[in-house]
Amino acid sequence: METMLASLVPASGTAAAAAAAGGLVAAAALVAGGGRLVGQKDRLNAPPAVPGLPIIGNLHQLKERKPHQTFARWAQVYGPIYTIRTGASSVAVLNSTEVAKEAMVAKFSSISTRKLSNALSVLTCDKKIVATSDYGDFHKMVKRYVMVSMLGASSQKQFRGIRDMVIDNMLSTFHTLVTDDPKAALNFREVFKNELFRLSLIQALGEDMSSVYVEEFGKSISKEEIYQTTVVDLMMCALAVDWRDFFPYLRWIPNRNFETKVSTTEARRTAVIRALINQQKKRIARGEARVSYLDFLVAQNTLTDEQVTTLVWEAVIEAADTTLVTTEWAMYELCKNQEKQERLFEEIQEVCGDETVTEDDLPRLPYLNAVFHETLRRHPPVSLVPPRFVHENTTLAGYDIPAGTELIINLYGCNMNKNDWDEPEEWKPERFLDGRFEQADMFKTMAFGAGRRACAGATQATNIACTAIARFVQDFAWRLKEGDEDKDDTIQLTTNRLYPLHVYLTPRGRK
């Protein structure tokens, strides 16, 4: 889910934004103090400011779809904290682990509000999910609900068998594909995606549903169409640019293409999720209770139908996205680094022998743990932490940060910071075995956030990814399809691999 939440996407909309604002001379007074060059310090103890232009600020410097890389380059010049202007907004960008933790933990009381793009405001029904809601009574209530019913330690035990089943299914599919055509390169993503979506549906709704009748569509849609409508389309729509995000005083100007795209995507998502929920409510009405998020929410009887619909969708997309991203990158790196793959296999042999790796074995596999966290560091599931809003004056790294400032934590910049990491561009799991970190610390790289807004699904993501990686290496020797060694491009500003991972598998002959 966190992949879809990165909402600073100043690419194709930049030119439109500048053009729309260019003829409005009066608006200049609203940006950068009446038209002086952005970057000039207005306060004695302000962070360094990246020089920009009147009205548009630094938007013209963020034309590519990789703003996290631009932010990291600027950090080499301006330091770990600096400010930029994105149109009318002042944004503090953090590029070091120390400053980021200060913001997320020590200064949480001043920086706990979410700042959403227009697209995300619509897609989340104005912050009606755990990940985007402002910290307050609603957030605390729904986060408690998701932890108690699905993601907390005790509820995770109830879904243990389901997690084991989906990983077994993945291995079974791999074995079948290899047997059918030993020389063919397998599409890893397709196999992993299908089983992970099965898990998300069972957890969220109580059933793996192969199809559903959607009244608004006038037909039944397949499981693949459910996935496309509730996961893929939503993730891509979250990247849609509305230039009015950067110039809110021009909100009165229509942006029809954007509005149509977002409203249509949201309506289709809502129709499908509502159809899935209604089908399960019939089961619940018959007294057929199951362990699921929906069953729990219905029993609470404290939420509106819209809130239940949006929260169930959040549970579906969260389980179906970031764990796939991390595991796919981990297997890519293990394929590229054969000696590290063999080291992991040897550790598994030493600890488990011929016994199948289970979640119970994870604490006894330090190199596996290191592989997982190094993948999170080098390929964080989301490069930019969803923007926050400073709602009261505070300080960060000794600088004054006024209320009204937006805050972006650049995880990519933090994890590529040479002051914090040796050879950060290299994928080296060994860095997590030098005693610097506790093995049980899930927040080494802040990929799961930190503090009171830490990712609710951190435990589940760790269990699934680590167990899957171990099982995959235990059963097969992995190598990349020829020519894919340097295919590490990502989709726009996300860290999703642009090219699905294709691999050759050789069974290890384990009994």
TrEMBL record:
<dbReference type="GO" id="GO:0052615">
    <property type="term" value="F:ent-kaurene oxidase activity"/>
</dbReference>
<keyword id="KW-0408">Iron</keyword>
<comment type="similarity">
    <text>Belongs to the cytochrome P450 family.</text>
</comment>
<dbReference type="GO" id="GO:0005506">
    <property type="term" value="F:iron ion binding"/>
</dbReference>
<keyword id="KW-0812">Transmembrane</keyword>
<dbReference type="Pfam" id="PF00067">
    <property type="entry name" value="p450"/>
</dbReference>
<dbReference type="InterPro" id="IPR017972">
    <property type="entry name" value="Cyt_P450_CS"/>
</dbReference>
<dbReference type="InterPro" id="IPR002401">
    <property type="entry name" value="Cyt_P450_E_grp-I"/>
</dbReference>
<keyword id="KW-1133">Transmembrane helix</keyword>
<dbReference type="GO" id="GO:0009707">
    <property type="term" value="C:chloroplast outer membrane"/>
</dbReference>
<feature type="binding site" description="axial binding residue">
    <location>
        <position position="455"/>
    </location>
    <ligand>
        <name>heme</name>
    </ligand>
</feature>
<keyword id="KW-0479">Metal-binding</keyword>
<keyword id="KW-0503">Monooxygenase</keyword>
<dbReference type="GO" id="GO:0020037">
    <property type="term" value="F:heme binding"/>
</dbReference>
<keyword id="KW-0472">Membrane</keyword>
<dbReference type="InterPro" id="IPR001128">
    <property type="entry name" value="Cyt_P450"/>
</dbReference>
<dbReference type="InterPro" id="IPR036396">
    <property type="entry name" value="Cyt_P450_sf"/>
</dbReference>
<dbReference type="GO" id="GO:0016709">
    <property type="term" value="F:oxidoreductase activity, acting on paired donors, with incorporation or reduction of molecular oxygen, NAD(P)H as one donor, and incorporation of one atom of oxygen"/>
</dbReference>
<keyword id="KW-0560">Oxidoreductase</keyword>
<protein>
    <recommendedName>
        <fullName>Ent-kaurene oxidase</fullName>
    </recommendedName>
</protein>
<keyword id="KW-0349">Heme</keyword>
<dbReference type="InterPro" id="IPR044225">
    <property type="entry name" value="KO_chloroplastic"/>
</dbReference>
<dbReference type="GO" id="GO:0009686">
    <property type="term" value="P:gibberellin biosynthetic process"/>
</dbReference>
<dbReference type="GO" id="GO:0010241">
    <property type="term" value="P:ent-kaurene oxidation to kaurenoic acid"/>
</dbReference>
